[in-house]
Amino acid sequence: xxxxxxxxxxxxxxxxxxxxxxxxxxxxxxxxxxxxxxxxxxxxxxxxxxxxxxxxxxxxxxxxxxxxxxxxxxxxxxxxxxxxxxxxxxxxxxxxxxxxxxxxxxxxxxxxxxxxxxxxxxxxxxxxxxxxxxxxxxxxxxxxxxxxxxxxxxxxxxxxxxxxxxxxxxxxxxxxxxxxxxxxxxxxxxxxxxxxxx
Length: 198
Description:
The chain has 198 residues and is an alpha+beta fold. The chain folds into two domains: 1-45; 52-189, Ctag/Cox11 (Ctag/Cox11 (Pfam 04442), Sandwich). The chain has one helix at 3-45, and strands at 52-53, 65-74, 80-84, 88-92, 97-105, 111-120, 128-133, 139-141, 146-155, 170-179.
């Protein structure tokens, strides 16, 4: 006589277990997808100071002039000297410009590095458009090799219509290089138009 009430109870328990299992699988999948989704969101919106990648220069020049400062950092485990050739420049919105960063491998072996980058204030990321940058790929330097790597960029004139950018007079572009471990990559990853020196 107790068999009939137990069947719906067992079915309910199986449904709860199945729901929990499916929910756990979905949460696990979302945790793996969150990093690439967050990166894609930041790249598309400039959130977190993430810069934009442009294929062509600005169609028009704007009216505002801003100062762009350049910052360079290297992780302790990467034996590189890395610094901008100039600390800051002043440019008009829509004006394409090129700046160079000087780098030296201070070690007796080939080393590889990858750059993390952002701009501050964060809201400027949506308007900081890079046409070319060494930060787009892993970089390889031979023993004591020197190079000068370009960053080609412009500030989108659309920033002039953004209330959050109205009082911004200065933007800082910051790079941090980190060591890349593993087998050496081919040297074809070097930035275009670099001025390499041995």
